[in-house]
Specification:
Elements lengths: L1 H18 L9 H13 L3 H16 L2 H8 L4 H10 L6 H55 L2 E9 L7 E10 L5 E11 L8 E13 L4 E9 H4 L10 E10 L5 E4 L5 H16 L1
Antiparallel strand pairs: 1-2, 2-5, 3-4, 3-6, 6-7
Helix pairs in contact: 3-6, 4-5, 6-8
Amino acid sequence: MTGIVVIPALGLGLLLAGCSDPTIDASSEEAFYQSSGKILESLDYDQREDFTDALIFVTTSSDDWQTFLSGYGRQGDCIDGMLRGLDGLTAAEVIAKSEELRRLSEQRERQREQRAHDRLKEQLRDKVENLEKRKAATESAKRHLEKFAILEASLIPADPGEVMSTVKINVENATPHPVSRAFFHGKLLSPGRSVPWGEGEFHSSIPGGIEPGEKMDIEALVVDREFLGDAEPPDDAFLEIEVVQLDGADGEPLWASWNFDDRDQECLDRLRKEYDSL
């Protein structure tokens, strides 16, 4: 009875072995090409194209292929490494492996894109935060600088042959600190005109300083060519002055308002839009 069972089973095994799909033999480069050729012969036209594409993708996705391209590895060792992962695979298994490798490749690409996106967003956030801090510090400085009040100001033209005009300023120090030097931005305006005749920066070093609560007349010099250019302002022109920096008794800045200007605001607005769009 046993023999009756064994003989049919052996015959079935031989039948299945004879009808099984051909596989890749990667024992050598020659064996690989021969076995791949046999697989191609067993496939129809569409299957051949899918198998060929899959075979190329699997081999060129391997680390050994990248090493071969870089020129650091021995050609023979690289080829053996590329083929080793295909040994014993059928056409269907090669195609399935290529699909899995493509899926992993696409996943890694999405992860790389996400990391790049996150880095860009982090960089934009840092730039926005830096500009916002500078803006807040400048706005705070302006509130302090306003306490160094300009009570009166006038421009005394240079004498003939001289190149420096004098700005006379009556100030009151309502800040809690003594001031040793004051920096100003001035505009020479006239009624009915929105464009200044002259504009520029100048400063005044104050001998002995000006103490909190003290009023004082101070002077600053401006270069006519830099401040007025070739303009000839009318007699009713007047000076409008903004305090942009004050230095303390130690000569170090107490507050400064020129660390954030209109260009910085434009940059901040643009970066905020870029950040919100991500």
